[in-house]
Every structure is written in C-alpha cells, then in structure tokens.
C-alpha cells in the first residue's frame, strides 16, 4: 500500500487503503440494496420461494392511499424536524462553543439524551405522556383530556418533540465544533468596526457555519425519512393510520402481512426519495462545489 505523489501537493494514499472500506460497504450496503431491489419485483411471503411479479408490487403501492399518505407523513415529519431542530441546534451549539466552565458542565448534561437508544427514549416518553398515569393525567389544565396520542396533530407533535429532545444534542455538537473552528480574528475585526453580538452572529457566525448546516440538514433528512422505532413504540401508526409513516408501513407489510415484495418496494422507494432530497439540498446549497483546504491529505 503505497502513497502516490502529485505535482501540486503532498502524496495521496494508494488505492489499496480503500479496499477494506470498499469491501465492507459492498457487503453490507450494496449487496442488500440489490437484493431489496430484486425482491421489489417479486411476490414472497418469507416461507416459499420468491415468484417474479413484474410491476405488481409497485402498482399496488401507488394505488394504496395509505402508502401515499405514509410518504407524505414521512416528508412532513422530516420537514418539521428540520425546522425545529436546526435553529435550536445552531443557537445551542454556538452558545456551547464558549469556554466558560458552567457552559462545559451544562453541555455535558445536555448531551446525555444522545447516549440513550431510540427505543429507551421512546419507552421513557411513552410512560411520561401516558394519558392515564403520566403527566397529562395530572395536568388537565394544560393537556385537556390528556390523550396526546388520540389525534393526528398532537400525535405528530409528540413525535417531533421526542425526536427533537433526543437528536438536537447530536446536531448541537456539530455546530459547536464548527463554531470553535471560526477564526477569532474575524470577531476582533468586527468589534473594532463597532459590530455588536447580534450583527457578529448573523454576519460572521452563520456564514461560517454553512458547511455544518448542510451536513446537519442532510443527516436530519435521511434520519427523518427512515424513522421507525419512535413511531412503533409511541403511536404504533395511530390513531388509525394518521402517523403511519413509510418506514412503519414497510414494517406492517413485511412482518404483519408477510408481503416482503411490497415491503421491499417501499424500502427501495425510501432510498430513492432520501437520495433525491439529499442531492437537491447539496445542489441548491452549492455544497458540491466547495473544496476543503486539506483535500488529499
């Protein structure tokens, strides 16, 4: 495994350095994806052998109102997650980038939800928000009848809140690292010019966080479209099918209806939608044209 030298810069790692990662990615990402794509054109109940079905699974899904509704709900939950988590993460990340001791202690406590599994967090909030034994049962003046899972609006609100509570610390950490990398000379020059804290935030901090912002948004989009555990434990797709997002719909098709062909079609559709949205974000932001000063090292 040698390093190849380039005329304009330092030597680059040889191709062999990428082989272990390429093999791992091929076995655990490319091969399963190809198998899912093949199964999306077959009928398979998980017991007998798969039978080629052509476009039957796709036609059925496109004619299923629950499937179309689930796709819309997935996009809606993802959009709400981005709109809520992004400003919170930016503000908390910039604040946590300070060097005061109290900020370090509070940041360490705030990052605790990031250490918990999605299942544990969902079980915790299911108990806290239980309409009979949880907080809503003892605060009717705030929660009304206390059943936050009884209507679509409140159930979606719970899902957004729980996801925000758990994943905002991750994105805060991204912004914290990016904020600490901003050269202090920019703020010193702004102070000399008479710029206050607010102007410094909007004219220095936010523009310098552009790369971190796009990375964070892409992670939110992919994570939001593939959310499953939270819905399974908190709402189980209810009330009715009002929170049945695509990932949960895929689970129902595969493990309740034993229609693995249709479930594979849903999975492939989610991959395509996630990829398209991510590419659109990258293209519109101009992120694909950016270059790192450490490229090639």
Automatic annotation (TrEMBL):
It is found in: Cell membrane. The keyword Ribosomal protein does not apply. Its main location: membrane. InterPro entries: ABC_transporter_permease, MetI-like, MetI-like_sf. GO terms for biological process: transmembrane transport. SUPFAM superfamilies: MetI-like. It is a multi-pass membrane protein. Residues 71-281 form the ABC transmembrane type-1 domain. Gene3D superfamilies: MetI-like. The keyword Transmembrane helix applies. Belongs to the binding-protein-dependent transport system permease family. This is ABC transporter. It comes from Streptomyces albidoflavus. The lineage of its organism: Bacteria, Bacillati, Actinomycetota, Actinomycetes, Kitasatosporales.
